[in-house]
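Q: Convert this sequence to structure tokens.
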Amino acid sequence: MSEQTATPSAPTPGPTRSARRRWAVPVAVGAAVAAAFAGPTLVASAGGEGLPDLTAEQLLAAVAQAEPQALTGTVVYTARLGLPEIPFAEAGGADPIALLGGSSTLRVWSDGEDRSRVALLGATSEYSVVRDGAEAWTYSSEDDEVVHYALSDADAARYAALEEQLEQGTPPEVAGDLPTPEEAAAQVLDRAEEFSTVSVDAETTVAGRGAYQLVVTPRSTGTLVARVVVAVDAETSSPLRVQVWSTQDDAAPALEVGFADVAFAAPDDAVLEFSPPAGASQRDVVVPLPETPDAAALDAADPEAALTHPDVTVTGTGWDRVVELAGVDVAALVAGDPAALATVPDGERTIGSPEAQELLGEFQGTDGEGGMDLDPTALYDQLTTDVPEGRLLSSTLLSVLVTTDGRVLVGAVPADTLRDLA
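A:
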């Protein structure tokens, strides 16, 4: 592979639509990468044999300025979180609940812009998600049901206006300036220095493609995360695989998502079009378009701003950080009452990266509609255990404690750490 294809090029001038989109990462990868840099990192060593040497800063810059890629591929997702088996998740079926444990296979297609299809494959059924701009469809072959998610007319008009601004190279105003990829990479490394070390490990091969490996290792001994390894395609700078290792098990990653095969080429247009299967039932869900984030949420210089809510208490820093939420109506949330979301402080409603939250928002309907077809109370009871302080979810990467007095403590720390704080 030539040095020219692997070495980061100069950033494209001007905030074009493509330049704005290049910051987005596929949701599963984005969430893991967000976890990797929650505590972040130091300087890095060089790459391995056969590929040009890159520092961690150069590699991060390459990922940030990479053009969105059209692709077709197969993704293998494996979770070894140490959670209890879920007996009501039907064996062999393509149920998203299966993602909580074991291995799952997904087929993915994307045009590199805003059209995509993901199919979760089971031995006896398939669960598909198709997105086309502001619309999305899900289809469960087991239930033979289509759910169509769309914006209201007013929100659709606002969405179209925002899209037009991006097309014309005049994105909506935000607080502060978006940094160049090089500046963003430097900021990530600067923030990480106190909590982690970063290195570029020996090159590897993922889905038959040469890749760099960025390794993030927490300095802390009080976290469940041992290290995060991100494999980055040497040619396209696209993440090919993310592995999150737990301190509880060094034999295999606790969470791994990566391509088994991938072709960076546009899929057939017909693959990205959704046609309801004959005879399938369909229901429509109106999804609200979020308002523009406030300045605090967008201020790259103050990533902790979202944690200043009076009902949010933060203990510790970096990988040891524990967030405590007060006044959360957990019972109503578990029961599926959409009004209960108002009890969660605004800054704590984001899951993973902003891109992950955007996708989550597409599947949260109004009036209690939408979401996965499962019994959340049964799932909650199955995944948590009784402790003197309340209910505890304990996994190899994350602990969650719901206290009897209405507090929720969350952290990538051992369960005993949360119980001591409660």
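The first helix runs from residue 3 to 6.
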